[in-house]
Amino acid sequence: MSFLLVGYFLRPLAAAEYRPLPPAAPTSLAADSWLLYDAAGNRLILYLPGYHAPAHAYYQWLRLSPRRPFPLSFAAAPGLSLFLDNQLIFMAPSAGRYTIDLAQAPRAAWPGPHLLAVWQPEGYPALGTFTADLAPPAAAPVAALVAAPGQVLLRLPLVAGQNILVLLLMAVALLYGIVRATYPAGLARLLQVEDFFSSTIDSQSFLVRPAFTWLNLGLIFLFALSLSLLLTALHTDLTSLPLLQQVLKVPESALAARISLYTGLILAFVLGKYVLVELLSYIFDLRGLVTLHYREFLRTTLLLGLLVPFVLLLYLALNVRWPAIVWVANGCVLLLLSATVLRVGRTLHQHTSLLNLHLFAYLCATEVLPLVVLLKVIVFTYPT
């Protein structure tokens, strides 16, 4: 009997099942702590940018507390989704920069570490733009995240900089009033809508006048300023372009610097368009169309540009109550860019038929290709 008891206590102990615990969750977001899902091993592994190929989904362990804000700022392309413990908490409806408070998510009230997942169905998330400032300044409050699973959270309005945009919009309106009082006859010729829709080129007095006058230069500047205000309000970040990222670094919070940068870029595009038209007209042997082409481009741009301040005013007034105004404002920018190309093509067709292969190739090089680039940069913006 004693032998049996000794043998019972000396029998080999059964091996306990080993279950690895998740690593200690950091209290903030770490740029070098992103994880990838290893399907073969059914586990999360550390993501090494120089070793692993880009993936559609990335993960990171976080420690959240409902009493401590966790503002997460990032640039998102359309469709980018955030999951907290496998529950959808955010989906980007359009390209832009967003700031959400993860501490306000329903799952943040649960004790223990939480798994944050970033998923981009088409393309790859821009991990370099994800930052977490756990002590935001009082002047820039972070909007609480209240989106339920499956609900879309629209882009955040400009709370801190909206007053600056309103003041600059009033300044643009005042400058337009000064131009109207100083050059009444010249502005009246620009606003002759019956000439704009006329079928004969000879009856359009604007096309036979010099392109670079003090009135036109002033209107070009006001157009560039008003469009830059609208792009800033829409969170269209032109500095997300790779070339501008290397040359210019303008933070999103610096509204004055961003507006100045966008205004300079728009001015350079409008004035540099004349050089492009001159160069390509020489290549395609269409030097006789240079003056007509650029004056029509300038007239259409300035005339439709008068509507940009009204679009910005509607956006600032209705952004909080009616989030769909974002799509309306983007549609107005799309209409402005497309109508200019169509109007230039119609005017050139009245002078020389577009069936001419040289004219068709010239129009594609001077108008269609720049239009595609502008639509990609301004309307359909995808942060890198």
What's the SSE blueprint?
Blueprint (H helix, E strand, L loop, with lengths): L1 H8 L25 E4 L4 E4 L10 E6 L8 E6 L4 E4 L2 E5 L4 E6 L12 E6 L11 E2 L29 H21 L1 H7 L2 H4 L17 H20 L8 H6 L7 H29 L6 H16 L2 H11 L6 H27 L5 H23 L5
Folded structure, characterized:
The N and C termini lie far apart (77 Å). The protein has two domains: 35-132, no CATH class; 162-379, no CATH class. Helices cover 45% and strands 11% of the residues. The strands form three sheets. The protein has a four-stranded antiparallel sheet with strand order 3-8-5-6, with no helix packed on it. The protein has a three-stranded antiparallel sheet with strand order 7-4-9, with no helix packed on it. Strands 1-2 form a two-stranded antiparallel ribbon. The chain has eleven helices and nine strands. The radius of gyration is 29 Å and the shape is elongated. It has 384 residues and is of the alpha+beta class. The model is unreliable at 1-18 and 136-160 (pLDDT under 50).
Summarize the structure.
The chain is an alpha+beta fold. It contains 11 helices and 9 strands. 45% of the residues lie in helices and 11% in strands.
